[in-house]
Each structure stands twice: as C-alpha cells, then as structure tokens.
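Hi C.,

You asked whether I'd gotten around to modeling the 164-residue construct. I have! Everything is below, sequence then structure, no commentary in between.
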Amino acid sequence: MFNIINDAGFRIQYYKVQNQNSKSEFYGKWYGRTHMLGTAGINELAQQIQNRCTVRESDILAVLSELSDAIAGILAQGYQVRVPGLGIFHTTITTERADSKEKFTDDNIKRLNVKFRAERPQTQIGNKTATVLKYCKMPVFAEYTPVKKSKKDTTGGGTSQTGG
C-alpha cells in the first residue's frame, strides 16, 4: 500500500547514465534518469482514492475499470481527452515518409499511438492546485545506485505491484 507523505518526505530516485552514442554531438555526456520502484495498478489507485474521500473502493474500481474504454471511445471519435488535475490523452501516428504529398497514402501509416501530456504544475481549480506533480516539489531528488543483476538471478525480473 502507498502512503502519500508530505512534500518534504517525497524523494524521486534517479541514476546517472552516460551517452554511449558515438555519433551524437553529446557523446560521453552524463544525464539523469528516474528510477521507478515498481508499477501500481487500479487496486492501488482505488485504495488511494478511498483514503481521500467517502467513496468505497468497489465503486472506485468500477469507474477505473471503465475509464480506459471510455477514453478509447472518445479518442476514436477524433477528440483528445482532458482529465482535470491529470492531463490530456491524444492520438498520434507513426508513418513512413513519402517523396511527395500525392504519394503519401493510408498505407504510409504504420501505427496509431496514444500519448499523454501531464497537466502543468501551476494549474488551479478553485482553491486547489490540481496537478500530477503537486507532491514533487524541489528539492525532491535522491540519487539511486543501480544494482546489477547476477546471471544466476531466478526471481523472474517482474515489477512490484506495490511500488517497493
């Protein structure tokens, strides 16, 4: 189970990686990448929501279970979907290039994608700050040192459902 800690208690873990692409102008430079502790699902979301309001977990699970189909249906109609306090879901396509506008056809479209753009941190709804990042205020970072798995690791390599 997750517990939301006050702003000062949250720490987003990161690790350092070096650009190994010798063709890049930034070859050899160092960057930070976030480290995720695991993956949370709708059960964890439902628990968090139930802890913050009067709606029962079973009702929340019913709504969350229908959310993906509802979003997919609206996207299929050509709209983007804005969830206040969260962000916007929208479609994009992956295509192959064509030599001219006339030669570009539906056959050039290779894949439909769904993208998400998080709501900006400063968005206000009434007197509440509604944002995905509202618990991630500076400074919230903690360096993480990746642990290399041994070749004899037989744990299956799955992700934690509870985030660690």
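If it helps when you're writing up: The chain has two helices and eight strands.

Thanks,
B.
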